[in-house]
Amino acid sequence: MITRGGRSLWSATAPPMDDFARLAATVRAQIAVIGAGYTGLSAALHLGEAGRDVVVLDGMEVGDGASGRNGGQVIPGLKYDPGTLEDMFGGDLGAKLVATVGAGPDLVFELIRRHGIACDAVRSGWLQLATSESALGPIAERVRQWRARGAAIEMLSEAEASRLTGSQRYYGGLIDRRGGTVQPLAFARGLARAAQRAGVRLFTQSAATHMERTGGEWRIHTAGGSVRCRQVVFATNAYSDRFVEPLQRTVVAVPSLQVATAPLPPDLRCSILPEGQSVSDTWRLLRYFRLDAQGRFIMGSRGVFGDVPPARAARLHYRAVREIYPQLSGISFDYHWSGFVAMTPDHLPHLHEVAPGIVAGLGYNGRGVAMATTMGVLLARRLLGENAEDLGFPVTPVRPMLLHRFSRCGARAAIQYLRALDGVARFAERFRRRKRTM
To answer: Are the C-beta atoms of residues 314 and 257 closer than 8 Å to each other?
Structure first.
């Protein structure tokens, strides 16, 4: 099982949740869901609401993987612009895919409203900000394409970016008003409670170890019991292990690390991100940041491979915070934590038909809050009998990566290379800014 270290801000501030039982017997269900993160919980909730008998298994606790350790940014869309997605998948499917991924935040905030999930939800928008003048062109094209499809998105000038962030480091960018933020672990726990109310049975500390086909049904074994079922959802994403080895080999688990300050003093809190948006920038190894409900400043970026204590790995993050916000130089950092992001070779999430009656969703490439929640709905619809061509998302067979055993080495080298390129680019940007002020 893949784990990462550091006590997260989210585990310290999420509303508590009663412990779930471990599976200690043989139980029957119509559907078993492996993984109690956003994907699995969303799938289980929607299947339960449709009247299906569902069991969820997880080897840790609810949200202990990426769903409870991410930045809590609810971002619409994927890495690719709408026109690119339409070109990749063709007319009807491409257009449906764009609509599906663009509506991800709508789903998240509607679930929060409908189920009364207390997770500090704020829908004030998402900013993507340019770290160089050359980055403004692609951002403007993204805005043009989404506006042509009716999205509430617009360009920001340099002055507007400065006002909305309280930082002088950006040349402008976009604001996408579909986006927002949540307390990510609280959202996961809220989905779990909603699923329970829909009749779903959840078992934690109950890792699936192997499964077999017997008598026309699947039997999934854990250390303490088993589940007999006819349909299965795999929802383990970057935390997939050898139990789902073919799926594990479709993604690369890349480390991500976040830091959080103590609550900011009132004078700083009112000038930094005063309208509550979350931010991503355009560095090759992008940085993302926001405030939480208590006014703590949170920043995340790529972490480091290997057994490096988060406090040591976080030094680059501390430096980045001071670079963007010199006024935070004296602020202490109370939390640092890390986890894994599931990256795919094509930078797209995947919905797989593993076998008849077995589906899987994974590979969110850093946009998992909205996309994983959406994926859970898509998986549920597929198991409820909806035709693949009607889902609005491509259904594909599992294609493990060649030489996957070397993927982490390759990812480590790529991160070091991109970090070096970003370092050179930041030096050049500082020089250009000095020239602008002379």
So the answer is: yes
Tell if the pTM clears 0.90, that is, is over it.
yes
What the block records as the tokens of 86 is: 């339409």
Full DSSP string of 267-296? HHHTTSSTT--EEEE-SSS--EEEE-TT-E
Question: Distance between CA atoms of 58 and 175, rounded to whole angstroms?
Answer: 37
The span from the CA of 151 to the CA of 83, in Å, is 14
According to DSSP, residue 84 is labeled: H
High-pLDDT (> 90) share of the chain, %: 81
Q: How far apart are CA 45 and CA 200, in angstroms?
A: 7
Cα 416–422–424 angle (5° rounding)? 105
Strand 217-221, strand 226-229: pairing: antiparallel
- Helices 184-197, 368-383: axis angle to 10 degrees equals 20
Determine how many CB atoms are found less than 10 A away from the CB of residue 100.
19
Longest dimension (CA), the chain: 79
